[in-house]
Amino acid sequence: MRLRFWAAILAGKGAYHLSRITGGRGSSLPGLVALRLFPEMLGAFARQARCGAVMVTGTNGKTTTNNMLARVLEAEGARVVANREGANLVTGVTTAFIRASGLGGRVGYDWAVLEVDEAAFPRVAEVVRPRIVVVTNFFRDQLDRYGELDKTVSFIRSTVAKLPATKLVLNADDPLVAMLADTGREALFFGLGAPTRGEEAQGTTREARFCPYCGQEFTYDYYHYSQLGAYRCSGCGFARPRAQVEALSVQTLNGVTRSVVRVRDEVLTLTLPTPGFYNVYNALAVFGAGLWLGIAPGKVAASLHRYVPATGRLQEFVYKGRPVYLNLVKNPAGFNESLNLLTASREPKDVFIALNDNDADGRDISWIWDVDFERLENCKEILRFVCAGRRAAEMALRLKYAGIPVQKIETCSHFAAGVRRALEGYGSIVYLLATYTALWPVEKILRRLATEVNGADSVSPVPRSS
Amino acid sequence: MLTVCHLYPDLLNLYGDRGNIIAFTRRARWRNIPVRVLGVRLGEPVDFREVDFLFLGGGSDREQSLIAADLQRRAAALRAAIEAGLVVLAICGGYQLLGRFYRTLDGTEIPGLGILDFYTQAGRKRLIGNIAIEVELEGKKIRACGFENHSGQTYLGAVKPLGRVLRGYGNNGRDGWEGARYKNVFCSYLHGPLLPKNPALCDHLLRLSLRRRGLDGYLAPLDDSFEKRANEVMLHRLGVKG
């Protein structure tokens, strides 16, 4: 038993170094190798957590929420193991432990902070037995992999029901998430107050227009995007629960998002060094987890203020003095939020979109037809769209049918050529949007090009200070 | 003015289905043919005689059960309209609903609208992946592609298939046929979505809708290079010559 554990760790560590040498990230392979040799590995690691584990799941915002929480705990002096790069299947979670462990397999940490894919959640949760589970939201994502959204929700529900000691941090604004509270677990809710964004949310893709309990159509007092908002069911009375953590006003200016946050009775200012509105939701989830962990809201806010985004989570670079943002897109709700960034400011901009259809992206790319590209039809500030990736031709086709003039749309068969085209445009900002498997190749190219032009020092990611 | 009807746009719109409506309306408007889109929700009235093109999309099980009763109330009117030549595109769940019944794994038969002669049998294996089919339109063969994702397996009675499977599963993964065709009704499992990448099929539906209005079906040619490219890239990947 002990011997197999060591053998598995050695093999895992070997796989990690091999992967790094060959240019990989080593974020999943070590776990894959180790679990083959010793399937109980994850459980053995998880039991070493002195204080326990927190798991973050949901469709969008997992990586950001997870990394924010890890930062907050570290600022409290805790030693934390976390899968920070978004590798969130059983293999990725196991890899995080292998990388943190010594050769003897001792990890010596206080907390495991793990983002876990919705489909992998039941398996990981059963072994890890988290003290806290954070659920961000449920949107349709990769139906070819998961089947229907309802199934995903019910898997998570039945798993949570089997963990009597687990406490929940739930998004009050998402009915599909809020209903997890009826599993009987102790729950805290976070949400946004009435919207302050000037424009009306335009998303037409809503996952839960109808009450999941009785089928009546929800009435909304207001909604933020997709199905998130203040819903009420006139049939059975199910409604947005009162949120213990609530953002009262959100403003994005010059790449910084500010809001007023109420945590129970305390009111404080939250400053996030990112223009992504939706990151307020992620931050609220962290305040919620902080309440269960007994961390003062002021300390949470201070850590979040210095938050540096993970790869492709609206990561900022500088190229020839212009800001370049790299953002992961993987489903309609998230993509629509990325489009908000494109239309939020009046500066001219160039846009690069890399659409892949590998297993990790979802082999079916039909979801791009659910993204509201029509909003960009008359957006003169976008000078050019460069499409790349295995489905570049279909991305270009989608843009054409959104009414965007075909003269503005280009396809490039290689990422490098496409990224270069976008960077050398006339815009003053460049947005690079990429699906999962396109993200790392694009980031690599971006770093290389930026180094060539700027020299190593001005190559970002640049954490914004404010 | 052509009228497009999207039945239950909030419920039957599982995965990019609205791409078919977008393609139909854009290709009409690019030719200066005015179009309006009616979204008809649960319980809302619609006169199918005023509709030129009806679209039925796919939905999840929960959503399909919500519409079942509402749809049954419309069955007689829909049948009459279809017999009178209404142009319909039905995808996935919408396709299955037009048939005689859906038989679940335990043998229960959930009745469909019974307008077209076919039935669907639940399968254990989900039929998922990129698919290419050959469809004959007005004597010309075209190669259409898309993505299929269904566990129901459909068997045709007295209706023609939409096309022949070149790559992928099709109706049931066995008989080599994909979709169904009856009068001006076109059914398919290709939800890719079907029309944007396959403009000849989209134009065929547009032409049928115009003719039914008593208009001449002439359509000014469009520059379809983006469409052709998207179609060819997929056919090439599937090892099918364009």
From TrEMBL, chain A:
<dbReference type="InterPro" id="IPR013221">
    <property type="entry name" value="Mur_ligase_cen"/>
</dbReference>
<comment type="pathway">
    <text>Cell wall biogenesis; peptidoglycan biosynthesis.</text>
</comment>
<dbReference type="GO" id="GO:0071555">
    <property type="term" value="P:cell wall organization"/>
</dbReference>
<dbReference type="InterPro" id="IPR036565">
    <property type="entry name" value="Mur-like_cat_sf"/>
</dbReference>
<dbReference type="GO" id="GO:0005524">
    <property type="term" value="F:ATP binding"/>
</dbReference>
<keyword id="KW-0547">Nucleotide-binding</keyword>
<feature type="domain" description="Lipid II isoglutaminyl synthase (glutamine-hydrolyzing) subunit MurT C-terminal">
    <location>
        <begin position="328"/>
        <end position="439"/>
    </location>
</feature>
<keyword id="KW-0436">Ligase</keyword>
<keyword id="KW-0479">Metal-binding</keyword>
<dbReference type="InterPro" id="IPR018109">
    <property type="entry name" value="Folylpolyglutamate_synth_CS"/>
</dbReference>
<dbReference type="InterPro" id="IPR043703">
    <property type="entry name" value="Lipid_II_synth_MurT"/>
</dbReference>
<feature type="binding site">
    <location>
        <position position="211"/>
    </location>
    <ligand>
        <name>Zn(2+)</name>
    </ligand>
</feature>
<feature type="active site">
    <location>
        <position position="364"/>
    </location>
</feature>
<keyword id="KW-0961">Cell wall biogenesis/degradation</keyword>
<keyword id="KW-0573">Peptidoglycan synthesis</keyword>
<dbReference type="GO" id="GO:0140282">
    <property type="term" value="F:carbon-nitrogen ligase activity on lipid II"/>
</dbReference>
<keyword id="KW-0862">Zinc</keyword>
<keyword id="KW-0133">Cell shape</keyword>
<dbReference type="GO" id="GO:0009252">
    <property type="term" value="P:peptidoglycan biosynthetic process"/>
</dbReference>
<dbReference type="InterPro" id="IPR013564">
    <property type="entry name" value="MurT_C"/>
</dbReference>
<dbReference type="GO" id="GO:0004326">
    <property type="term" value="F:tetrahydrofolylpolyglutamate synthase activity"/>
</dbReference>
<feature type="binding site">
    <location>
        <position position="236"/>
    </location>
    <ligand>
        <name>Zn(2+)</name>
    </ligand>
</feature>
TrEMBL record, chain B:
<comment type="pathway">
    <text>Cell wall biogenesis; peptidoglycan biosynthesis.</text>
</comment>
<dbReference type="GO" id="GO:0004359">
    <property type="term" value="F:glutaminase activity"/>
</dbReference>
<feature type="binding site">
    <location>
        <position position="126"/>
    </location>
    <ligand>
        <name>substrate</name>
    </ligand>
</feature>
<dbReference type="InterPro" id="IPR033949">
    <property type="entry name" value="CobQ_GATase1"/>
</dbReference>
<keyword id="KW-0961">Cell wall biogenesis/degradation</keyword>
<dbReference type="GO" id="GO:0008360">
    <property type="term" value="P:regulation of cell shape"/>
</dbReference>
<keyword id="KW-0315">Glutamine amidotransferase</keyword>
<dbReference type="InterPro" id="IPR011698">
    <property type="entry name" value="GATase_3"/>
</dbReference>
<dbReference type="InterPro" id="IPR043702">
    <property type="entry name" value="Lipid_II_synth_GatD"/>
</dbReference>
<keyword id="KW-0573">Peptidoglycan synthesis</keyword>
<keyword id="KW-0436">Ligase</keyword>
<comment type="subunit">
    <text>Forms a heterodimer with MurT.</text>
</comment>
<feature type="active site" description="Nucleophile">
    <location>
        <position position="92"/>
    </location>
</feature>
<keyword id="KW-0378">Hydrolase</keyword>
<feature type="active site">
    <location>
        <position position="191"/>
    </location>
</feature>
<dbReference type="Pfam" id="PF07685">
    <property type="entry name" value="GATase_3"/>
</dbReference>
<dbReference type="GO" id="GO:0140282">
    <property type="term" value="F:carbon-nitrogen ligase activity on lipid II"/>
</dbReference>
<dbReference type="InterPro" id="IPR029062">
    <property type="entry name" value="Class_I_gatase-like"/>
</dbReference>
<dbReference type="GO" id="GO:0009236">
    <property type="term" value="P:cobalamin biosynthetic process"/>
</dbReference>
<keyword id="KW-0133">Cell shape</keyword>
<comment type="similarity">
    <text>Belongs to the CobB/CobQ family. GatD subfamily.</text>
</comment>
<feature type="domain" description="CobB/CobQ-like glutamine amidotransferase">
    <location>
        <begin position="3"/>
        <end position="198"/>
    </location>
</feature>
